[in-house]
Amino acid sequence: MPLLRVHLDSDRITARRVLQLHQEGKTHHESREAAREQVWRQGRTPAGDPIFVGLTNGRRNVQLLYDVEVYSDTVR
């Protein structure tokens, strides 16, 4: 199944918290659900849970990066 990379705008405090939770083996549920919603808005159907892959290094705009497996034959 193909992966879709999702970029979510975030503030630095939230981004640090998401990264800290990831390093502890935990999940930031709000951002994971936001990634799932972004996939739906793009007309694709998620095939699994979004996987946190990192942060951007923007000085002004920080983004959370998630990979989401999607079904290849679905477009809403």
Walk me through what this model shows.
The longest helix is centred in the middle third of the chain and has 13 residues. This protein has one domain. By secondary structure, it is of the alpha+beta class. Helices cover 33% and strands 28% of the residues. The protein has a three-stranded antiparallel sheet with strand order 1-3-2. It contains two helices and three strands; from the N terminus they run βααββ.
Write a compact overview of the structure shown.
The chain has 76 residues and is α+β, with helices and mostly antiparallel strands. The protein is 33% helix and 28% strand. The protein has one domain (3-69).
List the helices and strands and how they pair.
Layout: E1 3-10, H1 12-23, H2 29-41, E2 51-55, E3 62-69
